[in-house]
Design goal:
By secondary structure, the chain is of the alpha+beta class. Helix content is about 25%, strand content about 35%. The N and C termini lie far apart (about 50 Å). The chain binds the ligand C=C(O[C@@H]1C=C(C(=O)O)C=C[C@H]1O)C(=O)O. It comes from Arthrobacter echini.
């Protein structure tokens, strides 16, 4: 079974030159460090989990878009690019062949440009096996293993200097002060209490001001090593390590990891192994918040599926900074009359924004976020990931991350689900626990 035919459209008149690619096996990946050795350039596109995934260099093509139909238009562009493409793929694994890395704005009203970027070179690692893709739109370029290795070598020969944190690096307040954020949360709680909605996610930002240019590659390595159960991402200055999988499509299967319910590990009693289980899984408030998130995801995914499984009870996901209540959902996608299942981007279009990052009902929560938050979320809490020519892909939710605004200014984002009974000071503290992965990777403290 294949994903929805992405090659059904013919190239638009006047369209730029056709994409051509070759994917070959690539030796030399250290089994212990995997792709981490390839994080040497600050502009690398990155998708890493458990040392596997992909690191992309350079840019062969780019598509940018804003507005409510940004996912559909992104997918249409990708379809057109694939229409005239010539692909040699010896691997045939998800992510090999032609691929675009992407990052999408959280909001349909955002001026921030969503983007799909086709890199020139991708080093991949799937189940411990290394591979290499070279993508060009040069009609004359040779599609050989040597050409791919030469293109890769050119990037690796120019690594960026990586600086350790400087003593003068500091964390400055973002758009809202801590007091203002707590006032906003209190306002959100009032709206929930009044019955307008059952859950609202409110976020805030802080700004890392650095003495020397941010060493993105070093930061990503730190994140990938410490947060190996998370998906460490970098697309065009959006960096982070997310624990939440919006949707992953592999052939006819879709998977998601839904989180809601958070407990800070800092200050947790060391000699109490049942603490997280008791506080999170034993809390009506946390279970309620989690159930809202699960219902929203499964309800939206259902029309695309023939069957769906998830555990009846959430599990406690332990990360270095926090514990979360988590649920994994696996679904079999229903093929259309032609035997094609929806692409990963088609499912993103249906699923985003989930209750985990927006609220319930979505439209009420979205309007309140715009009214109360005072923050331009940009790509924060939007989908980040990749799509291949078959429509397979992984789209995480861009959480626990930051935007590199200038070489020395990095904006960090974190938010919390507000429900009836949420306390502003507890939510403020929770944002600090969610900033911690990026703060530690940057080597910056409060
Ligand atoms: C909004 C964020 O996280 C989300 C909110 C959570 C919560 O409120 O418990 C937990 C995980 C995420 O779904 C964030 O990290 O910025």
């Amino acid at each position: 079974m294949s994903t929805e035919s992405l090659t059904a459209l013919t190239p638009a008149p006047g369209q730029s030159r056709a994409l051509r690619s070759i994917t070959v096996a690539h030796g030399g990946l250290d089994p212990r460090s995997g792709l981490l050795d390839y994080l040497v350039r600050n502009d690398a596109h990155t998708w890493i989990r458990h040392n596997g995934g992909m690191v992309g260099y350079g840019e062969t093509k780019r598509f940018t878009v804003t507005g409510p139909d940004r996912f559909t238009r992104g997918q249409d562009w990708w379809r057109r690019e694939l229409a005239g493409a010539h692909v040699v793929d010896e691997l045939g694994v998800p992510g090999s062949g032609l691929i675009a890395f992407g990052s999408f704005a959280f909001s349909k009203t955002s001026a921030h440009e969503s983007r799909l970027i086709v890199p020139e070179v991708v080093v991949g690692c799937t189940d411990g096996r290394g591979w290499l893709t070279y993508i060009t739109d040069d009609p004359e370029a040779e599609l050989t293993a040597e050409a791919a290795e030469t293109a890769l070598a050119a990037y690796l020969l120019e690594p960026d200097e990586q600086y350790p944190p400087s003593p003068g690096d500091r964390l400055a307040p973002g758009v809202l002060s801590e007091d203002e954020y707590q006032a906003v949360v209190a306002e959100g709680v009032r709206h929930v209490h009044d019955g307008e909605l059952s859950k609202l996610v409110l976020a805030r930002d802080v700004v890392a001001e650095l003495e020397r240019p941010v060493s993105t590659a070093r930061v990503l390595r730190e994140l990938a090593v410490r947060y190996e159960d998370c998906w460490t991402y970098a697309v065009d200055g959006l960096i982070g390590s997310t624990p939440e999988m919006l949707i992953k499509v592999e052939n006819n299967t879709a998977q998601a990891r839904v989180l809601a319910g958070t407990l800070d590990r800092a200050g947790a009693p060391a000699a109490d192994p049942g603490y997280a289980e008791r506080v999170l899984a034993g809390s009506e408030k946390q279970l309620h918040e989690h159930q809202i998130a699960i219902d929203s995801l499964t309800g939206t995914l259902e029309p695309f599926t023939s069957s769906m499984t998830s555990h009846s009870e959430p599990f406690v996901l332990q990360l270095p900074n926090v514990w979360h209540l988590a649920s994994d959902v696996t679904a079999n996608l229903t093929p259309d009359g032609d035997g094609h299942v929806p692409t990963s981007l088609a499912l993103v279009q249906a699923l985003h924004p989930t209750a985990a990052v927006c609220g319930t009902p979505t439209t009420v929560a979205g309007a309140l976020i715009r009214e109360l938050e005072h923050l331009q979320r940009g790509p924060y809490a939007g989908p980040v990931g990749w799509i291949d020519a078959a429509g397979n892909g992984e789209w995480g939710i861009a959480l626990r991350g930051a935007v590199v605004e200038t070489p020395t200014r990095v904006r960090l984002y974190a938010g919390c689900g507000i429900v009836e009974g949420s306390r502003p000071e507890a939510e403020l503290a929770e944002t600090w626990s969610k900033f911690r992965p990026m703060m530690e990777a940057l080597g910056i403290s409060r």
